[in-house]
Amino acid sequence: MSAQGDPPYVIIVGGGKVGYHLARHLIERDYEVTLVEKDPVRAEWIEHQLGTVSVMVGDGDEMAFLATTGIERASVVIGATGDDEDNLVVCQLAKVKFNVPRTIARVNNPHNVAVFKALGVDAPVSATELLMGLIEAEMGSELVRGVAVKASGTCLVDLALPAVSGFVGKSIAEISLPKGGIIVCIVRAGRPVVPTPETVVEPGDELVVFSKLTDVAAVGEAVARG
Amino acid sequence: MKVIIVGCGRVGARLARQLDAEGHQVTVVDQLVSAFNRLGRDFGGNMIVGNCIDEAVLRRAGIEKADCFVSVTNGDNRNLMAAQIAQVFFKVPRVITRLYDPIRQSVYREMGLETFCPTSLGAELVRDYFLTGVNHGHEPADVDPSTAKVS
């Protein structure tokens, strides 16, 4: 682990679109980054683009190679290749053999998120799943207005009540949204109202709901149906 | 017993035929339909086309009721992931995986996975032959008693 005050050391395995942009983003935020890429041509290109980053050419899932990256002092290892099996093995090796405190894996097949969790990866991230949630929310209901995405896979959505809604006249405590969606704010006549359990929903209210990104569509539907 | 074999290469196909002929219930998973040609016409087991590291595909192959699972695709990491899904996620009683890389083998063995490594097996076999003159690589059926003592 890095000493206090030192920038956190992050190893990214896989220099495709995700790995490259991630490295760039982290360098801008003063992280110390090593990017591991199999293809020497791609590695050279990345090095040319990013300048300061250290790019190593090698197999991110070879133990001997990983040992040369200074992995034992890394605070985070990220498997960012396009192959789920490679990302899994990188994270497992980092965790089990090099005691890296936090492992993050890009999960290409959304079916595999639960599998990655069960197999010890700290944070499996499925871009496909996030994207599907967003797109579904956009398609499912025209009432969904703004979606703020956070890295945690959660979001805030602004849901306008339909003209006729069963929610009107009910208190916050009486409304239960599917999958644990939480009403964190009510926009009433353009002004935010912080709701208490006793706050009663009025016609024309907009509900700002906090929910998992993948459940946005279900929450949006529930509000639309009232 | 119910057996799932992922990877219908030489090893996978041979094992599948053998177990099928012995009366076991065999399901083979491979991404390529053409790989199933290796099973021959008389193979009586199931063939599933799909990605072996996809939980849904493994369910389709009947993993929830399987007694044994072996991963013998040509990628170590793919084998590791499939075997771990079988062992940790679906709790298949007997899971074994092939790994070409001896280092990875020792790591995952420590983590509780049954593995075999053709690389170290092969190297040992040749070394034994050089040192002792005995070739353990011949199957018993291939050995003709009349010519066994060449040296």
Notable features of this structure?
heterodimer; A: 226 residues; alpha/beta; Rossmann fold; Alpha-Beta Plaits; 2 domains; 6-stranded parallel β-sheet; 5-stranded antiparallel β-sheet; 11 strands; B: 151 residues; 37% helix; disordered C terminus
Q: Could you describe the 3D structure shown?
A:
The complex is a heterodimer of chains A (226) and B (151). Chain A has 226 residues and is of the alpha/beta class. Chain A has two domains: 9-125, Rossmann fold (3-Layer(aba) Sandwich), CATH 3.40.50.720; 130-225, Regulator of K+ conductance, C-terminal domain (Alpha-Beta Plaits, 2-Layer Sandwich), CATH 3.30.70.1450. Chain A has seven helices and eleven strands. Chain A has helices at 17-28, 40-50, 63-67, 84-98, 113-118, 127-140, 216-225, and strands at residues 9-13, 32-37, 54-57, 76-79, 102-106, 123-125, 144-149, 154-160, 182-188, 191-193, 206-212. Chain A has a six-stranded parallel beta sheet with strand order 3-2-1-4-5-6, with helices on both faces. In chain A, strands 7-8-11-9-10 form a five-stranded antiparallel beta sheet, with helices on one face. In chain A, strand 7 (144-149) and strand 8 form a beta hairpin. The termini of chain A are far apart. By secondary structure, chain B is α/β, with parallel strands linked by helices. Chain B has two domains: 2-116, 3-Layer(aba) Sandwich (Rossmann fold); 118-151, no CATH class. In chain B, strands 3-2-1-4-5-6 form a six-stranded parallel beta sheet, with helices on both faces. Chain B is globular, with a radius of gyration of 17 Å. Mean pLDDT of chain B is 92; it is low at 142-151. The chains are: A alpha/beta (226), B alpha/beta (151). Chain A binds chain B through residues 61-64, 83-86, 88-89, 92-93, 96-97, 109, 111-112, 114-115, 118-119, and chain B through 51, 53-56, 75-78, 80-81, 84-85, 88-89, 101, 103-104, 107, 110-111.
